[in-house]
Amino acid sequence: MCTFSTEDDYLKLLSKQLSEELDKKRYIHTIGVAYTATSLAMAHGTDLYKAYLAGLLHDNAKCISSEKKRKLCKKHGIVLNEAEEKNPDLLHAKLGAVRAKEKYQVTDEAVLNAIKYHTTGKPAMTELEKIIYIADYIEPNRKMLPGLSEIRRTAFGDMDKAMILILQNTLSYLKEKDASVDLLTQETYEYYTQSENIHKSKS
Ligand code: FE
Ligand code: FE
Question: Fewest CB within a 10 Å sphere: which of 47, 92, 172, 196?
């Protein structure tokens, strides 16, 4: 879809429900991600509607308590890995994809996967998956982090490069905090640094 209206009945209802479900800070972040994702989709010539929709829904499960997150995962057969056991907040991505389908009637697998992988990333991501991962990090309401201006600039030209910069920051932040790292985050970092190296050796 090339054009759409954010005042479509469905999108309007979705925004209203999210404004009630999320706390104020999270809702403001959500709108920031939806518009940043749409802008990235413009820059990279991909579907604007999918970017907006995935952006809107990416954190839909964020404001659910840890206890309820665990319960819902059990209900939906989501098995927790080590990092998720230690930090149930990570579950909002997988759970968000399930809820986007069940509660918000999203059937598009591309959108659901963009929600599912927005915290860890994964090797060989689609354009839409990268767009949501990156938009989540660079949206304008994010507090200033080292290197953020460069990442913002890079994202509109080369998303793979932006992925590496974000993953580097994320991994060193987690290391500093002595927090557990989801294996998938590490694998994603290795995948993108390796493909960057292959790229370099070819050129
Ligand atoms: Fe999130
Ligand atoms: Fe987010």
Answer: 172
